[in-house]
Amino acid sequence: MKNVKAEDFKIVEKVNIVDLPTSHDLDASKSLIESELRVLSKKLGALQNTMYAHAKYAVLMCIQGMDTAGKDSLIREVFKEFNVRGIVAHSFKVPTPLELKHDYLWRHYIALPARGKFGIFNRTHYENVLVTRVHPKYIMYENIPGVDSVEDITDDFWEQRFKQINNFEKHIADNGTIVFKFFLNISKDEQKNRLL
User: Fold this and answer.
1) Does residue 185 come out as left (phi exceeding 0), alpha (psi in the -120 to 50 range) or beta?
2) How much is the pTM?
3) 3-state secondary structure of 9
4) Any long-range contacts for 165-169 (C-beta under 8 Å, 24+ apart)?
5) Distance of alpha carbon 19 from alpha carbon 35, whole angstroms
6) CA 112: distance to chain centroid?
7) Adjacency order of strands within the sheet including 58-65
8) Measuring CA to CA, which residue among 77, 87, 178, 169 is closest to residue 126?
9) CB environment 5-39: b (16+ within 10 A), e (fewer)
10) 63 — phi, psi (to 5°)?
11) Is 18 helix (H, G, I), strand (E, B) or coil?
12) What is the 3-state secondary structure (H, E, C) of 151-189?
């Protein structure tokens, strides 16, 4: 099986998602890959127990991807060896009426893992600059001062959101949360096959 290096998947510059690969050839059988996943999952589970005992850091796994990309399957398979007391998964759907009474990052902030725990965000705070950018009318439900119509949602508005998200991530990292970000990219054809 090919050796996979994390740095091969690091995004270090602005990219167009259409240009990114949607699969990775590991040059191995499915059974070998599944066997390796079990070994790595057990190692992660053991590391989680150590981290839980030390209670100094938290880990946040941010998993983003298109519908049918496999976010739920990834969570189920990778984290099945974890002690359930040390892991909390949150699946962020459409904001609830209570969540809409707060700023858009509030629901993510209150879902952060405590020190010693792993947190998983299935869909993430990035939805607030992805989905809402495609459908800016959703911003209107947030009842933001100074945003009275879709026309008020300007490039400056989005730049401010990007800055707020970066500040949010810096704040939690500065306070002991190790953040990992994953985007599961699938082709339009594969997505169509999975939907049919």
Assistant:
1) beta
2) 0.87
3) helix
4) 165/105, 165/125, 165/126, 165/128, 165/129, 168/105, 168/108, 168/109, 168/125
5) 31
6) 12
7) 87-91, 118-122, 58-65, 177-184
8) 169
9) eeeeeeeeeeeeeeeeeeeeeeeeeeeeeeeeeee
10) -115, 115
11) helix
12) HHCCHHHHHHHHHHHHHHHHHHHHCCEEEEEEEECCCHH
Cα 180 to Cα 160: distance, rounded to the nearest angstrom:
23
* CA 153 – CA 146 distance, rounded (Å): 10
Q: Which residue has the tokens 């270090």?
A: 12
Domains of the chain in sequence order: 24-195 (3.40.50.300)
Degrees to nearest 5, angle at CA 43 with 41 and 49: 105
Structure tokens at 62: 């941010």
Strands 87-91 and 177-184: unpaired
Instruction: Give the span between the Cα atoms of 149 and 170, in whole angstroms.
Output: 31
Report pLDDT digits (tens) over 2-53: 777 777 777 777 878 778 777 777 778 888 888 888 888 889 889 989 999 9
Taking the chain, what is the end-to-end CA distance rounded to the nearest angstrom? 32
Tokens representing 193 are 């096959």
